[in-house]
Amino acid sequence: MIPTLDPAPTLDPSTDLSFTRTLAVPRALVWDCWTKPEHIPHFFIPAPNKVTAVDLDLRVGGRFNTTFDVDGNLMDNNGVYLEIVPQEKLVFTDAYSEGWKPAPEPFMTAILLLSDAPQGGTTYTAIARHRSPETAKTHKEMGFYDGWGTVVTQLETYAKGLMP
């Protein structure tokens, strides 16, 4: 039997940044937005910045590649999926690219946890796990909470527009 990762990882306050919000959209829709390439450009980077390319291969070891346009500068973000539990957990990192090629300057591993909210909607937890306290501090100073918070607000707004 292959062991699985802990579904709710223990956080290290020196290296992990995290927040939880309740979204007024169903969990299945949030999952679709995160796993289907046509949805990613609508929420994945705070506006007015844009996602200009998405290339997903939703399998463990599959690519999670995006390109951002930030103030006219194109930025490639290549990574791989580490764990996929449909509609519950999505883990990806930039520590590797497809084919398990180590990245020269990895930044973080993202963990998204989804569950049904008690009052309806989705309980959404985002975790950014870093290699060192210094990297976590840098990410926090770059605006992790505002930036990732904006992304989840954009995700919720976009997903509401997809509801029947």
TrEMBL record:
Residues 25-159 form the Activator of Hsp90 ATPase homologue 1/2-like C-terminal domain. It holds the Pfam family AHSA1. Belongs to the AHA1 family. It comes from the Bacteria. InterPro entries: ASHA1/2-like_C, START-like_dom_sf. The lineage of its organism: Bacteria, Pseudomonadati, Pseudomonadota, Alphaproteobacteria, Rhodobacterales. This is Polyketide cyclase. Gene3D superfamilies: 3.30.530.20.
